[in-house]
Known about the structure:
single chain; five-stranded mixed β-sheet
Amino acid sequence: xxxxxxxxxxxxxxxxxxxxxxxxxxxALVEHYPALVRLAHLxxxxxxxxxxxxxxxxxxxxxxxxxxxxxGTGALPRPRGPREEAHAWLRARVVAxxxxxxxxxxAALALPRVTGxxxxxxxxGGDELVLDRALAxxxxxxxxxxxxxxxxGLGPEETAALLAGAGVxxxxxxxxxxxxxxxxxxxxxxxxxxxxxxDPCTVHLRPTDLLRRRRRGRVAALAAVLxxxxxxxxxxxxxxxxxxxxxxxxxxxxxxxxxxxxxxPERWADTSRVDFTAWPARGDRTGDTALLGRxxxxxxxxxxxxxxxxxxxxAPPAGPPALLYAGDTDGAAVVLLHDGVRLARYTExxxxxxxxxxxxxxxxxxxxxxxxxxxxxxxxTRYLLAPWIAEAGVRDLARPAAAARELAxxxxxxxxxxxxxxxxxxxxxxxxxxxxxxxxARIVEDHAFLVAxxxxxxxxxxxxxxxxxxxxxxxxxxEATGPLGLAAWARSGCLLGPLHDAGVRSVNRWEFAEQRLxxxxxxxxxxxxxxxxxxxxxxADVVLETPARAPGAVRPLLSVPDTAACGRFGQDVLAGGPWxxxxxxxxxxxxxxxxxxxxxxxxxxxxxxxxxxxxARAPGEGTVVLDGRLADGGVLRGWTAAGG
Length: 644
């Protein structure tokens, strides 16, 4: 009986595991088939698309059975008992096969053939979507390490040995990256990975585009007839026939409408990259080469007024861009293009000169690539929605209890005009109109989210991170479409006004602390609203929400530009400012996020407190310096509002 032999660096000796018989391997394959296919599916690259990835997972597992002599050797940990030898052998071959498959082109995968149907695992919720995106962003060996430790229950040493035998050069780094991923995604990764959303054995079936298949069938039949009819003429060609006249030189590919990229209409439902690259070309003028040529010339040349969002390059595209839309909107001809990094909207108004607007769109996702502004007129704003948007409605943030008004979206994804928000009132804050969108169940179930038009081409995604309950781990940003999230954003809607035309990609309202006010004046909520731009910079607005504050009149206590605070890479925050009690006494209030265990105030107010909040009398005005002590012993310098 042949044996597999693995050698590990360090003091460990080589481990030899006997290769199972074909009968034992087949029995183990039948017994553990769903788990093995799930393992292969997680390791395989998401770039294959959902259908090819499912089929490839089954192909990888079915190719693991030994045929006479083993196809190759691979490292695997010593099984706990003889009955597990066959399972361990197959598991190692599945991992090695899935890691090797990433290097092959899809056409070389020898997949099972499925004609006329699309198949894909069940769509999940928000946590599943976040985990799926996190898995797609890491290397295959990291996904393998996560699957082996979470799904297969292997220890770090066993996992490292198996990965090393599968050809992974740095298994320890893969294990560390898998541990970080497991700690950062929301929910329980083990429970999520065992759910039906990551099960390639329980799939949905949908037909492919029936009309396109019928057209292709007719075209193929016509081509066959023409080929047969042309054979005699081809045989009569003389060797000395004159060569065809030379054609004119090809135009610049980036300015040639014939080279425009056009995504398959169903790509968005069969890819893990749900962004602008999955948008098909829509509109009633996608075949108007003259219009498309003018739009491309405007981008690649001069002579047309160009507008850009902050820090967006106006340079021509490096290659042929993708066509997303071409049609007439409110009397103007509009063309929407995407070069992988930027959106370009070319508009020919009924009167006046054309204009080209450019905006960054790199790193867009299912929410930030869900809609684009096609036109703004006196009647309102028209949007073009992503093909994965199944429902759309309009909300007024200042009225959280009111139901969303449904939008009647045209078949090509264009919305009717959405009225502009109410003008500003006496408090200087106007209404804020937002879109509430829901993704199709074909990519994710029960996923609704809010986006707000802040003046750019792409509306900004609005998120919400509520205050965690005592003893509960910190929460991840979530969608603000529930009653509590809508009520929270009703108090923060005024913060969106100053963000117009700033290239904002997303705004997250983070409730980082709660404080009991002096003189039994109730409880206050400390909020940090972070506006993230497409280039990565951010602005943080800190708000102290007190019981007496009117919902529509929220103003930031302080604003900090160009900061990483209140975001993924700045999770500790300490802020303070003045507050006057109902009796007229002036106080300094301060609060920190969950890792702050002590606060010290110096300068005009000298005070200290254990824990995350501080309240001290502030008899006069002057500069206050705040320092926070972190749980790990570090020191955090705080922000203070003017006059604090």
